[in-house]
Amino acid sequence: xxxxxxxxxxxxxxxxxxxTLGEILYGMTVYEAVRDLKKERGNIHRLFILVVFGDMIGIxxxxxYYTLRLLPFIVPNLEGWRRGLMRERDFTDLCDQEIT
Length: 100
Hints:
Layout: H1 3-29, H2 31-53, H3 64-74, H4 78-86, H5 91-94
Protein backbone atom coordinates (compact mmCIF):
# COMPACT_ATOMS: atom_id res chain seq x y z
CA UNK A 1 0.00 0.00 0.00
CA UNK A 2 1.43 3.38 -0.91
CA UNK A 3 2.10 5.88 1.84
CA UNK A 4 -0.59 8.29 0.53
CA UNK A 5 -3.31 5.65 0.89
CA UNK A 6 -2.18 4.90 4.44
CA UNK A 7 -2.27 8.59 5.34
CA UNK A 8 -5.75 9.01 3.85
CA UNK A 9 -6.98 5.94 5.73
CA UNK A 10 -5.42 7.16 8.98
CA UNK A 11 -6.90 10.63 8.49
CA UNK A 12 -10.42 9.29 7.85
CA UNK A 13 -10.11 6.97 10.85
CA UNK A 14 -9.07 9.84 13.12
CA UNK A 15 -11.95 12.01 11.86
CA UNK A 16 -14.46 9.25 12.59
CA UNK A 17 -12.93 8.74 16.03
CA UNK A 18 -13.09 12.46 16.81
CA UNK A 19 -16.73 12.62 15.65
CA THR A 20 -17.63 9.58 17.74
CA LEU A 21 -15.87 11.01 20.79
CA GLY A 22 -17.70 14.33 20.29
CA GLU A 23 -21.06 12.56 20.11
CA ILE A 24 -20.28 10.59 23.27
CA LEU A 25 -19.35 13.76 25.15
CA TYR A 26 -22.49 15.49 23.86
CA GLY A 27 -24.61 12.61 25.08
CA MET A 28 -22.92 12.59 28.47
CA THR A 29 -23.16 16.33 29.08
CA VAL A 30 -25.97 18.27 27.39
CA TYR A 31 -28.24 15.82 25.55
CA GLU A 32 -30.84 15.60 28.31
CA ALA A 33 -30.96 19.38 28.76
CA VAL A 34 -31.42 19.90 25.02
CA ARG A 35 -34.19 17.31 24.93
CA ASP A 36 -35.99 18.95 27.86
CA LEU A 37 -35.63 22.41 26.31
CA LYS A 38 -37.09 21.19 23.01
CA LYS A 39 -40.01 19.62 24.87
CA GLU A 40 -40.59 22.85 26.80
CA ARG A 41 -40.41 24.89 23.59
CA GLY A 42 -43.08 22.65 22.06
CA ASN A 43 -45.32 23.06 25.10
CA ILE A 44 -44.99 26.85 25.01
CA HIS A 45 -45.68 26.87 21.27
CA ARG A 46 -48.85 24.80 21.73
CA LEU A 47 -49.97 27.09 24.55
CA PHE A 48 -49.43 30.17 22.38
CA ILE A 49 -51.47 28.69 19.54
CA LEU A 50 -54.19 27.72 22.03
CA VAL A 51 -54.38 31.28 23.34
CA VAL A 52 -54.43 32.80 19.88
CA PHE A 53 -56.59 30.25 18.01
CA GLY A 54 -58.54 28.70 20.86
CA ASP A 55 -61.81 29.79 19.27
CA MET A 56 -61.33 27.02 16.69
CA ILE A 57 -62.02 24.49 19.42
CA GLY A 58 -64.45 26.64 21.39
CA ILE A 59 -62.20 28.63 23.75
CA UNK A 60 -62.39 32.29 22.68
CA UNK A 61 -59.61 34.24 24.40
CA UNK A 62 -58.34 36.91 21.99
CA UNK A 63 -60.47 39.13 19.76
CA UNK A 64 -60.71 37.89 16.15
CA TYR A 65 -58.84 40.93 14.77
CA TYR A 66 -55.54 39.83 16.29
CA THR A 67 -56.20 36.24 15.35
CA LEU A 68 -56.64 37.19 11.70
CA ARG A 69 -53.45 39.25 11.74
CA LEU A 70 -51.46 36.22 13.00
CA LEU A 71 -53.20 33.63 10.82
CA PRO A 72 -50.71 33.66 7.88
CA PHE A 73 -47.85 32.79 10.24
CA ILE A 74 -49.67 29.94 11.96
CA VAL A 75 -51.36 28.19 9.01
CA PRO A 76 -48.46 25.72 8.39
CA ASN A 77 -48.64 24.50 12.01
CA LEU A 78 -52.42 24.40 12.42
CA GLU A 79 -53.12 20.78 11.49
CA GLY A 80 -50.35 19.39 13.67
CA TRP A 81 -51.53 21.57 16.55
CA ARG A 82 -55.08 20.26 16.27
CA ARG A 83 -53.89 16.66 16.17
CA GLY A 84 -51.61 17.20 19.16
CA LEU A 85 -54.30 18.95 21.18
CA MET A 86 -56.96 16.34 20.52
CA ARG A 87 -54.62 13.38 21.04
CA GLU A 88 -55.65 11.00 23.78
CA ARG A 89 -53.38 11.17 26.77
CA ASP A 90 -52.92 8.68 29.52
CA PHE A 91 -51.34 8.68 32.96
CA THR A 92 -47.87 7.83 31.66
CA ASP A 93 -47.72 11.06 29.62
CA LEU A 94 -47.63 12.99 32.89
CA CYS A 95 -44.57 11.06 34.05
CA ASP A 96 -42.06 11.88 31.33
CA GLN A 97 -39.05 11.64 33.63
CA GLU A 98 -36.74 8.67 33.47
CA ILE A 99 -37.07 6.12 36.22
CA THR A 100 -33.64 5.37 37.63
